[in-house]
């Protein structure tokens, strides 16, 4: 019998809207005993809590700034006291800054992006992982990385760097769990191309990698999580780009990515959301 969330506790970060909310909806629909939702946006979080409760879910909503380690640790302790460590942890929260590297503000752009995209998943996983290991029950940890973690791209240097970092971290922890005999805790890293959530407003999908719809990414990411799939690239053509980049000389790849596939021009008209937030 495959892994099921029925009767289990699921925690989703960046859950007030977008893909985070969709993940939480799937958890409620499939019978999770408790669904813990974290987000910095209190008004939207309260709306999502009400909707999920109306749909039959038992919800623990917490306003958490995942860029703040103290808030993460405090919220995690509350979760463990009220419902126990999650059986499914979904590190979904993320931000993007689409500008030339030298235009980044060190605090509002660079540190902000690294804190949320790289450090937050590490801090949150660290807050629960020992309990997930010691409980010795099938558990899952899914991290939303990005195709940007596999291919360099102009006007997203810090974002790409953050996703390279979280991809390397997540897959390394997967190997540690396997090698140390903790195979009941499975890590899944999802690497999608651009997603139509508003976060990448204005970005253009490269050739062979059209803009993805949030529900598709959530559905496939959820299925991969349940199956314990280590890495999921969406669309599958991301793997082709990854492979070509690995075998072609740098300048040959630059020509292909820039002039043929359009990867290097995909952020030229990027606008993003009007206000920065921490949700996918």
UniProtKB/TrEMBL annotation:
Source organism: Lolliginicoccus lacisalsi
One Pfam family, short name: adh_short
Residues forming coiled coils: none
Keyword Oxidoreductase: yes
Domain of life: Bacteria
Keywords attached to this entry: Oxidoreductase
Taxonomic lineage of the native organism: Bacteria, Bacillati, Actinomycetota, Actinomycetes, Mycobacteriales
Name this protein carries in UniProt: SDR family NAD(P)-dependent oxidoreductase
GO molecular function: oxidoreductase activity, acting on the CH-OH group of donors, NAD or NADP as acceptor
Family: Belongs to the short-chain dehydrogenases/reductases (SDR) family.
């Amino acid at each position: 019998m495959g892994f099921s969330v029925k009767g289990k506790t699921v925690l989703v970060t960046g859950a007030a809207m977008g893909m985070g909310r969709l993940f939480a909806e799937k958890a409620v629909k499939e019978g999770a005993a408790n669904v813990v939702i974290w987000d910095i946006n209190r008004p939207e979080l309260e709306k999502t809590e009400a909707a999920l409760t109306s749909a039959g879910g038992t919800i623990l909503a917490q306003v958490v700034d995942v860029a703040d380690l103290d808030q993460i640790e405090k919220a995690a302790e509350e979760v463990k006291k009220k419902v126990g460590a999650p059986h499914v942890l979904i590190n979904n929260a993320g931000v993007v800054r689409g500008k030339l590297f030298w235009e980044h503000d060190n605090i509002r752009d660079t540190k902000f992006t690294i804190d949320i995209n790289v450090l937050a998943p590490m801090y949150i996983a660290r807050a629960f992982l020992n309990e997930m290991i010691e409980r010795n029950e099938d558990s899952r940890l899914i991290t939303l990385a990005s195709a940007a973690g596999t291919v360099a791209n102009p006007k997203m240097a810090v974002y790409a760097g953050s996703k390279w970092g979280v991809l390397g971290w997540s897959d390394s922890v997967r190997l540690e769990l396997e090698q140390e005999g903790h195979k009941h805790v499975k890590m899944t890293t999802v690497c999608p191309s651009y997603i139509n959530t508003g976060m990448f407003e204005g970005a253009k999908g490269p050739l062979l990698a059209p803009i993805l719809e949030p529900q598709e990414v959530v559905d496939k990411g959820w299925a991969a999580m349940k199956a314990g799939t280590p890495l999921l690239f969406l669309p599958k053509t991301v793997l082709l780009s990854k492979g070509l980049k690995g075998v072609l000389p740098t300048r040959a790849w630059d020509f292909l990515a820039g002039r043929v596939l359009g990867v290097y021009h995909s952020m030229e008209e990027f606008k993003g959301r009007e206000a920065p937030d921490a949700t996918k």
